Each structure stands twice: as structure tokens, then as C-alpha cells.
Amino acid sequence: MGANIAKEAAEEESGSGLNLKVLSWNIDGLDGRDTIARADAVCSVILEKKPHIIFLQEVVPQTLKRLQSKLGSYYTIHISHKLVFQYFPAILVTKVSRKIVPDGDVGMFDFPGSTMGRHLLQLFVRVCGVPMALYTSHLESMKDFSGERKDQLSQCFEFVKEQNELFSRTCIFGGDLNLRDEEVKSMGGLLPKMVDMWEACGSSEEDKYTWDIQANDNIDWKYANKPRCRFDRLYLCPADGPFVKALSFELVGKERLPQIGRFPSDHWGMWSVFQVSEIVSSE
């Protein structure tokens, strides 16, 4: 597997630009059942698909150790250093591509109104010379916390807006945002330059619902109504210039694990590809 990752990275280095592969996934560490088997399945998807950037939510200490063991040779794993709750988001960045380089330390910003320990994780990188800000979060859960969730989303958008407008960084922001469409509409929609990757790539019905009780039975759902929700979102806010474009969006992690009869998570993962053009120095 390691040889395949190195080979693919070498092939990417030979061309100009990069098809940047991004995975965002709530891996449901709060479900205490089959934790290792499900974490291993997440790692298998990652090693097979070889994303450059990974946003994870609901990482717990036990799954973090598994990620470090299985992925640590190929990815740097960034989490907050001041955790309040024992579940948290993480950003993983490939180590094997010279076209993706770090551009600063990880930042963490608490949501002051959260009762669930939620926060925003920020990381700066350069991809083919293009400065980028990466953001992931797990916004406040459940319908009753809609007001706090919208406040948190507004705070996230302010960070994105600042980096995009003042520092000319292309921003990729995604995660389990627990969003309902009416919440986004009530806030006036997205930022002017921001696009929803699912919408930008065709709004496929097959790839719409990231938390789908009709298709995913990991949760012991006891009610007749089985909701299908697009809780997870992935946004692109490009800086000026033709450097980053949306290419594709699909859902992953839909294969049931035969040894346990369950899926890796109660959420599907979001898989997106961005076309990044190389910045050519004028010197």
C-alpha cells in the first residue's frame, strides 16, 4: 500500500497543477460499538482512495491512536491541543506530495455558546503555490440547538471571509455541520464567492443525503419515520484568479463491513476533487 501511495505521488509531481482530493467524514467515534473495526475500515478507505486533505469529525482517543498507527507514515494529523470533550475534529494532510506544503501551525477557535465542546479547526497550506486555508468543524447537534448552530456557522463564515478577502487565501471548509437548508437560507445564504460542492457538481440525488437512516442502519432507530438529511457540507471559497475549481463530489463509505454487519459510520463520507492550477512565478 505504501508503495502505491508513493508511486501515485510521484506521478502527480511530474505534471503541472494538481487534482486536489479532499475527504470529509464524521467517523462516529461516539458509538462505542465495533470501534476498532470501524476505524480500521475508515483507514482502509483512506489508503485506497489516497486523499490529499482529510477532515474528520467525532474522532476519539481510541480512534486517534488507530489513525496514527495506520496513517501516520503518510499523513500529518492535526488536532486541537486544548480539548474539553473527549471527541474532536481533525485535519490530515498528505506527507507524500511536494505540491502540498504547510504554511503555519494549526489553529483552534472555541464557540463560546457551545454546550458540546464544539470548535473550529484551521490550518494553512500551499497547494501548487496557491495559499489555502482549511477549516473543519462539528457544529452543534440536534434540532433544538438551531440558534447556536447558526451562530457557529456565522463565526465560521467570518473566519473564511477574513482569510479569503484580506489574505487572498482560497478556503475549503467542511464537516458535519448538522445543517438544515432553511437555516442557511435564514442567514442570507452563503458568502458571495462561496459554493456548496454538492450543488456545484450537479446536485446528484444519489449523493445528497450524508446521514440517511433509510440506507444506513448503524443507529438503532426505533421510529417509523426514517429521516434522510444533508447534515454534512463541503464549501469552496476561491481567491481571485483561475487557480481552484470544483471538479467532482460523491459520497463514500457505503460498503457494509462483513465481519460486523455494519457500516464504518452512521454518516457517509464526502469525497471531492478540486482542480488546482500551479502559480507560475514571474521572476
TrEMBL record:
Cofactor(s), by name: Mn(2+); Mg(2+)
InterPro entries per record: Endo/exonu/phosph_ase_sf, Endo/exonuclease/phosphatase, TDP2-like
Start and end residues of each Endonuclease/exonuclease/phosphatase domain: 23-267
Protein name: Endonuclease/exonuclease/phosphatase domain-containing protein
PANTHER family per the UniProt record, alphabetical: TRAF AND TNF RECEPTOR-ASSOCIATED PROTEIN (PTHR15822), TYROSYL-DNA PHOSPHODIESTERASE 2 (PTHR15822:SF4)
Organism encoding this protein: Amphimedon queenslandica (Sponge)
Molecular function, one GO term: 5'-tyrosyl-DNA phosphodiesterase activity
Keywords noted in UniProt: DNA damage, DNA repair, Hydrolase, Magnesium, Metal-binding, Nuclease, Nucleus
GO process terms (BP): double-strand break repair
GO cellular component: cytoplasm
Cellular location(s): Nucleus, PML body
Gene this protein is translated from: 100635507
